[in-house]
Amino acid sequence: MTITDVGVAARVSPSTVSRVLNGTAKVDPALADRVHQAVRELGYRPNLAAQGLARGEWGTIGVMLPDLANPYFPDVLKAVTAVARANGRRVMVMESDEDPTVEQDLVTELMRCCDGLLLCSPRMDRAQLVDLVGHGHPMVLVNRIAPGLAAPSISVDFYAGMTLICGHLAQLGHREVVYLSGPEASWANGERVRALNAAEAFGMKVTVLPCGSTTRDGNEAAPRALESGATAIVTYNDLVAQGALTRLRQQGVDVPKEVSVVGFDDLSLDWFGLATLTTVSTPRDELGRRAGEMLELLMTEGHDTEPRYLPMALLVRDTTGTVRTTASARGAQG
Amino acid sequence: MTITDVGVAARVSPSTVSRVLNGTAKVDPALADRVHQAVRELGYRPNLAAQGLARGEWGTIGVMLPDLANPYFPDVLKAVTAVARANGRRVMVMESDEDPTVEQDLVTELMRCCDGLLLCSPRMDRAQLVDLVGHGHPMVLVNRIAPGLAAPSISVDFYAGMTLICGHLAQLGHREVVYLSGPEASWANGERVRALNAAEAFGMKVTVLPCGSTTRDGNEAAPRALESGATAIVTYNDLVAQGALTRLRQQGVDVPKEVSVVGFDDLSLDWFGLATLTTVSTPRDELGRRAGEMLELLMTEGHDTEPRYLPMALLVRDTTGTVRTTASARGAQG
DNA sequence: CTGTTAGCGCCTTCAG
DNA sequence: CTGAAGGCGCTAACAG
Questions:
Q1: How many whole angstroms separate alpha carbon B171 and alpha carbon B26?
Q2: Partners of residue A176 on adjacent β-strands
Q3: More confident call, A178 vs B184
Q4: Which residues contact B89 (CB under 8 A, 6 or more apart)?
Q5: Which residue intervals define the domain HTH lacI-type in the entry (chains A, B) (predicted)?
Q6: How far is Cα B63 from Cα A298, in angstroms, rounded to an integer?
Q7: Residues of B from 37 to 66 whose C-beta is within 7 A of strand D: which are they?
Q8: Which pLDDT band holds residue B330 (cuts at 50, 70, 90)?
Q9: Residues of chain A with pLDDT > 70: what percent?
Q10: Which of A167, A226, B3, B127 has the fewest CB atoms within 10 Å, measured from its CB?
Q11: Which domains does chain A have, with CATH numbers?
């Protein structure tokens, strides 16, 4: 089933078939009709490998991300896919399991079969990033801003988000908070930490505890967080927060009366359980959409867009409250 | 950067390069060394489009699934990806949003750029399935067994899983249960319903309520489920169950004292909240692994494997208990 | 506006 | 065991 078969069926040359199918040039309507009919009758579909070879492009964009099981990414992916489809492209996604070495391989692999790449929350260091970008393949960074890198970037404004959290806690009277830190190699985690450190200027004492990005991590870290003596537990994301929350409850700790807990990302995990998490929201849909658009622009017009930051919004819900004054738990809810 | 460039660098013909790279034929070790070195120095990577065109295959398998946001699928995907990588293939996934029409398009699209397809929980009807399989592309069905279809299938044994649930409830004294039904077009849902109906032979009265597959669906259906007067709420999956559970608690209903709730799939959502869900477990990893292997077999040897059913296991946890005898809630926990 | 011609980069017969 | 030659299906530059 080739373009030639369609050609004979429509009594035209293969080129003409190609032209009507791609709209590359004006074709006599009569011939075009014959072609369309033949295509329909034969159920012809262009061979993508042949097209790719001839055109030098695949009609596919690649997405690399650390973990598909994180509810964060399906939302982003849906938006990216929508944009890609609107531009007539497929999407190929690969997950790295948070491993920088794997990331390198995946990107190399994706470059072989995609016209452009979206690197979501890459964990690799700046040098590796520079190396990869140097290959000249269009790629845009998502949730990672790397200064001086020849690739457009778009990210949620983690720093501002965490600042909102700190402000909220400060106003509730919290002066000592503990932060359950995300993956060490995560730039996004670094931004959160920076914002926390900045909050110390306002008289807030911050303890950083290595933790992780999953519910399990939060669950395991909760006791240590409690022991730190902080009145509020700030977390890398909602998953960690929920894990911690569960553990605290099991230990009979009253949240938010005895201790406040804050999430990050608004994964809307709050369907579960009675209390819903105070957190900051991420515009995941917009993030995916704009990232897709930036990549498309980069691929088609070589447009190197300015780095963009997307704002987060504070969502005060049930897990934060005024700090308890002494040893007794008599604080009021926020 | 073509195979010819490598050839000149290694002072051999392109054919020789191809042969050492693919292990297609015996090559003088000295030449092979030169080739490897040249490849390394030039950083050469075969053009996939050219390979695909010449070989007539893409080195890619396609996966179609209804919804990436369902935590069920990332687990399956990880296993599929692992198998695919072990066989030197990439994975391309597309989600249909539970829409049979979209499914048709996606499969058609995937057939154009993949050597084989995994159709996960397809919602399309049998006729459409037959049509698609008729195209002669290797495909295996996951979580859908369709009799007389010329495609291998593998599925979790939903019927047996639901039977375990019914038995468990019956032994706790439940005689009236309500089922929050999944997507109408879901074969897996049909299997669950069949098992429920079979349970009626044991004196169990079953009411089926249309619901859906998401937490939101469960949340919204909970009041209706309660009104049905049943003593136990059986659900399409853990997501629905959690949604219902949350709503019941908000209404002050004591689970499991006043009503029992059972999930399905063991999505391990139980990190959240105080009570963990009684449910049946799905071997998602094994499902993905075996599906991948079946597809590989089908692609390489045309092996048409027997349909396989994977067993589920009952996990009795905190949300089921003995039926309350009258109006008072004095049941004990299971 | 249409058909003919020459590759895209690789694999795979076929000679040697 | 190696090189040369043809073709995979399509597009694009070239004549007509």
A1: 68
A2: A205
A3: A178
A4: B59, B60, B61, B115
A5: 1-55
A6: 28
A7: 50, 53-54, 56
A8: very low
A9: 95
A10: B127
A11: 3-46 (1.10.260.40), 60-156+284-310 (3.40.50.2300), 158-282+315-333 (3.40.50.2300)
Q: What is the pLDDT of residue B269?
A: 67
Q: Is B160 exposed, middle or buried (0-12, 13-18, 19+ CB in 10 A)?
A: middle
How would you class B62 by CB atoms within 10 Å of its CB: exposed for 0-12, middle for 13-18, buried for 19 or more?
Answer: buried
Please give the pLDDT value at position A329: 42
Give per-residue pLDDT as tens, B51-61. 999 999 899 99
Chain A residues touching chain B at CB-CB below 8 Å: 45-50, 52-53, 58, 60, 68-69, 71, 74-75, 77-78, 81, 90-95, 108-109, 112-113, 215-216, 219, 242-243, 245-246, 249-250, 269, 271-274
- pLDDT of B327 above 50: no
Whether A17 contacts A3, CB under 8 Å: yes
What are the C-alpha distances in Å from A63 to residues A94, A120, B127? 6, 7, 34
Q: Strands B313-315 and B279-281: what pairing? A: antiparallel
Nearest to B272 among A68, A81, A273 (CB): A273
Residues 6 or more apart whose Cβ sits within 8 Å of residue B65: B73, B76, B77, B93, B94, B95, B96, B120, B121
Task: Quick: pLDDT tens for B19-39.
Answer: 999 998 888 999 999 999 999
H/E segment holding residue A137: none
Which has the closest alpha carbon to A234: A137, A291, A168, A165? Answer: A165
